[in-house]
Specification:
Order of helices and strands of chain B: HHHHHHH
Helix content of chain A: 40-55%
Strand content of chain B: under 5%
Largest sheet of chain A: 5 strands, mixed
Number of helices of chain A: 8
Structural class of chain A: alpha+beta
Largest sheet of chain B: none
Strand order of the largest sheet of chain A: 2-3-5-1-4
Oligomer: heterodimer
């Protein structure tokens, strides 16, 4: 007779086991017939639970709460994103980025723009030479409007004494259309240009940068004055017969350099540059010389930021609820098991 | 012996394991009549739930015995509620059926079996009668393998003692 397979048990139970197995209960013919009839009915389609159980209800409630939290968090994040909001015609809050200019001072080409007062109100100074650069993303409703908006932007630039540096219009058969323009407008008309261009559609993003060139120009003008004064003195000495030709030539060369630098800075500051992106897509962030890949990557990263933030939010608020549901489930399971043990002991 | 995966047809499973389920319920309830009722109810339930049976997770025998156990426990719960409502006294005799519990068992062994609790008879049925291995039986009972082994050892020891006590000096 085979012994019990449990290695922890003594072989002395082998005979007992053999007696038990030798008298294996057999179902009566009535029971056998009844079960056979049951089997012929075929496996039915699963029935829904009639009696609701506590644990699934709690779990469902926890999931509902979690979903509400996630929705709230997503709404909150979407509505509050971006630094400042600028909307038109009830559009959703766009994402804006505004460069905060540093204080003036330093070299001619140093970044020393002025402090912005408010979105779209970054006006160039009328008394100082400045390098004005603006990037604007404007949304229009359709591809047809895109063409019209592009022509309008060009007319605005020309009407203000400016011109078009480049224009790139894309209107694919499917998907979003885009028009990218680089316009130059007299800096004195920059604010007017900004306001008119913003009126073409819905301004969804802007970036304005002002770099002060005046300080550098002033320093060069001081050097120019100084050089001119030196040149005058040397010319007087030359008139008295002194040999100062070489020194004069050097000073005059330096004077020319300084003057050319001032002219170049003046030319740069004379015209403001507008990089305009017209699009039929939803809110997009205006980037400096942003290509498609960079734009897509930045959007993906923004989305990932939002997802992580929402997940953290849900975890912090929903976590305790889920934990509570799990604890209740474990307690219920333990209670039921103890109840079963008591039943078995009592019967 | 370890349980192996078996054919998935319900009719095959019912035919093959009817005696296993019935035998288990006889041992569990200590009542042949009740065991028959519960066996029929078990297979009714098994038919409805057959789609949930996954042969990869265990044999049909184990699955059916688990279902039988649940059926028996549900029965006792409802009986307890009924007795509570009717304010009836609890039975002291473990069974009230006619004839021996298990034909072929010696009267001493049968008496000794009936003196065990349902929990003890149950583990004897699973491990000895149905020859389920330790881990499978433990899983079915919802206890650890160690606890299952301990319970079996205690049950068999008690059986042995009761049978020894029944032998006339």
């Amino acid at each position: 007779m085979p012994s019990l397979r449990d290695p922890a048990l003594d072989e002395r139970f082998d005979e007992l086991a053999a007696q038990i197995r030798g008298a294996r209960p057999r179902a009566s013919e009535a029971l056998r017939q009844q079960v056979a009839e049951t089997a012929t009915r075929g496996v039915p389609v699963p029935e829904p639970r009639r009696r609701p159980r506590l644990v699934p209800i709690l779990a469902f409630a926890a999931l509902l709460a979690l979903g509400a939290v996630v929705a709230f968090a997503a709404n909150g994040l979407r509505g509050g994103s971006g630094a400042d909001e600028q909307s038109a015609a009830g559009e959703s809050a766009p994402v804006l980025r505004q460069v905060a200019p540093a204080q003036s001072g330093g070299a001619e080409d140093s970044s020393a723009p002025e402090t912005a007062q408010a979105p779209g109100a970054l006006a160039p100074s009328q008394t100082r030479l400045q390098l004005y650069r603006a990037q604007m993303t404007i949304r229009v409703d359709s591809t047809a409007e895109l063409n019209a908006a592009t022509r309008r932007a060009i007319r605005i630039a020309r009407s203000l004494g400016g011109f078009v540096v480049s224009a790139d219009l894309r209107t694919p058969e499917q998907g979003e259309g885009t028009s990218r323009l680089v316009l130059r407008v007299p800096t004195t008309k920059a604010q007017t240009a900004f306001e008119r261009l913003a009126g073409i559609g819905t301004l969804v993003a802007q970036r304005v940068r002002l770099d002060d060139l005046q300080a550098g120009v002033n320093r060069r003008n001081e050097r120019i004055d100084d050089l001119q004064a030196q040149i005058v003195q040397l010319e007087r000495r030359a008139a008295r017969g002194e040999d100062v030709d070489e020194a004069l030539a050097v000073l005059r060369a330096r004077l020319r350099q300084e003057q050319e630098a001032v002219e170049a800075a003046t030319r740069r500051g004379r015209l403001a540059t507008f990089t305009l992106t017209l699009t039929t897509a939803d809110a997009a962030v205006a980037e400096e010389a942003d290509g498609d890949i960079e734009h897509a990557a930045r959007q993906a990263l923004d989305l990932l930021d939002d997802v992580v933030a929402v997940a953290l939010y849900a975890l912090i608020l929903g976590g305790p609820l889920v934990l509570l549901a799990v604890v209740i489930w474990l307690l219920e399971r333990r209670r039921r098991r103890r109840s079963d043990e008591r039943l078995l002991e009592q019967n | 012996m370890h349980d192996v995966q078996e054919p998935i047809s319900f009719a095959d499973a019912a035919e093959r394991h009817l005696d296993d389920v019935y035998g288990y319920l006889v041992y569990l309830t200590g009542d042949r009549g009740l065991a028959e009722d519960l066996a029929a109810e078990t297979f009714e339930k098994a038919l409805r739930l057959w789609r949930r049976f996954d042969p990869a997770r265990g044999s049909a025998k184990t699955w059916l015995c688990q279902l039988a156990r649940t059926t028996a426990l549900d029965h006792w719960r409802s009986e307890r509620r009924r007795r509570g409502r009717e304010d009836a006294y609890a039975r002291e005799e473990p069974f009230a059926s006619e004839g021996p519990l298990v034909p072929g068992l010696s009267p001493d062994l049968e008496r000794a079996l009936l003196s065990l609790s349902a929990a003890e008879r149950e583990v004897v049925a699973l491990r000895v009668l149905l020859e389920l291995d330790g881990p499978t039986a433990a899983r079915l009972l919802g206890i650890s393998a160690t606890a299952c082994s301990t319970r079996l050892s205690r049950a068999l020891t008690r059986l042995e003692e009761r049978m020894r006590d029944a032998v006339p000096a």
